[in-house]
């Protein structure tokens, strides 16, 4: 996701006025990425800039921001159409593997049945064995249809006398989240899922990590110690020595400091604590470490049991029937031999590729489990705090409470209003009373 897309998504959910720190905390983007992105958006839609008395820059956007951008920019309209075309192409590619499997299986069964019928009528020694073979061939498509339609029988058992067109459509075509059922997965999509899997379940782990880090920083009043943030970071195995743990956690804070404009500070006892003045602080919450970041394990496939059985029957039928079709195909019909060879190769692909994914999936899940255990160990060590860690945490809490207790700054300049009018309003309000 681009910076502009992330900003548009968050601003649409957040509202019309925001600061750089609020957007960085909500999107997980760095402050260096957010500020130029917001300035570009304000310039494109003729938004307003406001300046608070503490120097904080606020960005005010009109409603329906995305629609305004599309209306004002031909480049963005072209990009939106291109993205829609790419999504459609990706869907067609995803469905094509299952469609080819269904078509090839149907063609092999039909052509083989026709050739056997011709042989039965032209052969003098035709017997019941040939008829039994034809009956067996007829069972292949019937079994596939029975398995595919098994998901549609539940409504009928619950009192529905017929199957709706929407259910028939979802039987083959629905992708996850596109049908009436949010978890729907049609058979054509299930073939792709069994063949290639369902993608990386942790593809959005990094944005999630930075959003959780920013939320934790705000919850602690913008002041933390490194050990409390360690369960969200990628650290080596948690050592038993508290001093070693502190050194490793402090060393891992540099990316966080750079991303959110943090500053290391020294407490009264000479310990390191970290302040993030650019992030808007909330009231300091309960002490303790952040819950550890958990990665999700790879699943082999989201396809249901019936879809997997149908997949196995189709692949097995191709592996058994295609060599038979190749053996009895007449020499004057070369396309039949070509179809048989293609069916053999395609069936081998559908069989071997999922089997080859199994060791890779096992290796990935083992690495994911190890990283989750490390983060859990850091969280457990931070919960079982020694006296020195409790003192550092108390110092951070005191400073965080001071930051969170400051009143919201007053807006002293608005680019959408006349400067003279703002000056008069400022004189009428007078200076803010001090405690």
Summary tags:
6% strand, 435 residues, mainly alpha, single chain, four-stranded antiparallel beta sheet, three-stranded antiparallel beta sheet
Order of helices and strands: HEHHEEHHHHHHHEHHHEEHHHEH
What percentage of the residues does DSSP assign to strands (E)? 5-15%
Biggest sheet layout:
4 strands, antiparallel
Oligomeric nature of the chains: single chain
Report low-confidence residues grouped into runs of 5 or more.
151-161, 175-182
Large-scale geometry: elongated
Mean pLDDT, as a whole number?
Answer: 80
Distance between the amino and carboxyl termini: 46 Å
What is the CA-based Rg, rounded?
32 Å
**What class, by secondary structure content?**
mainly alpha
Estimate the helix proportion, in percent. 55-70%
SS summary, helix count: 17
Main sheet strand line-up: 1-3-2-7
How many strands appear in the DSSP assignment?
7
Task: Give the tally of structural domains.
Answer: 3
InterPro entries: At5g03900-like
Keywords: Membrane, Transmembrane, Transmembrane helix
Transmembrane segments: 95-118, 309-332, 338-356
């Amino acid at each position: 996701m681009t910076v502009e897309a992330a900003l548009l998504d968050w601003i649409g959910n957040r509202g019309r006025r925001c600061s750089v720190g609020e957007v960085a905390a909500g999107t997980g983007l760095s402050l260096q990425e957010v500020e130029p992105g917001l300035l570009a958006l304000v310039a494109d839609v003729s938004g307003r800039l406001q300046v608070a008395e503490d120097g904080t820059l606020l960005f005010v956007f009109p409603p329906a921001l995305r629609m305004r951008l599309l209306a004002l920019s031909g480049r963005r309209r072209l990009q939106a159409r291109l993205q829609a075309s790419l999504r459609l192409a990706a869907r067609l590619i995803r469905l094509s593997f299952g469609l080819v499997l269904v078509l090839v299986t149907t063609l092999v069964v039909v052509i083989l049945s026709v050739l056997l019928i011709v042989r039965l009528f032209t052969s003098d020694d035709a017997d019941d064995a040939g008829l039994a073979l034809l009956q067996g061939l007829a069972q292949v498509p019937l079994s596939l249809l029975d398995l595919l339609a098994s998901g549609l029988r539940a409504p009928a058992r619950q009192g529905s006398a017929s199957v709706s067109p929407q259910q028939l459509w979802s039987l083959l075509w629905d992708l996850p989240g596109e049908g009436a059922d949010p978890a729907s997965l049609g058979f054509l999509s299930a073939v792709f899922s069994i063949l290639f899997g369902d993608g990386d379940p942790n593809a959005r782990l990094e944005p999630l990590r930075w959003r959780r880090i920013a939320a934790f920083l705000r919850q602690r009043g913008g002041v933390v110690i490194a050990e409390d943030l360690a369960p969200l970071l990628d650290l080596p195995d948690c050592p038993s020595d508290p001093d070693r743990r502190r050194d490793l956690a402090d060393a891992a804070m540099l990316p966080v400091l750079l991303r959110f404009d943090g500053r290391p500070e020294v407490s009264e006892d000479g310990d390191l604590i970290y302040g993030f003045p650019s992030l808007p602080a909330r009231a300091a919450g309960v002490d303790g470490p952040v819950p550890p970041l958990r990665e999700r394990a790879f699943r082999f496939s989201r396809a249901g049991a019936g879809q997997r059985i149908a997949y196995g029957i189709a692949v097995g039928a191709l592996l058994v029937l295609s060599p038979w079709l190749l053996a009895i195909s007449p020499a004057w019909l070369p396309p039949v031999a070509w179809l048989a060879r293609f069916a053999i190769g395609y069936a081998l692909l559908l069989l071997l590729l999922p089997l080859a994914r199994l060791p890779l999936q096992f290796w990935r899940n083992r690495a994911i489990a190890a990283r989750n255990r490390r983060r859990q160990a850091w969280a457990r060590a931070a919960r079982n705090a020694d006296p020195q860690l409790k003192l550092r945490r108390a110092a951070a809490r005191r400073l965080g409470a001071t930051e969170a207790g400051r009143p919201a700054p007053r807006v002293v300049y608005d680019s959408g209003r006349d400067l003279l009018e703002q000056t008069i309003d400022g004189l009428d309000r007078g200076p803010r009373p001090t405690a």
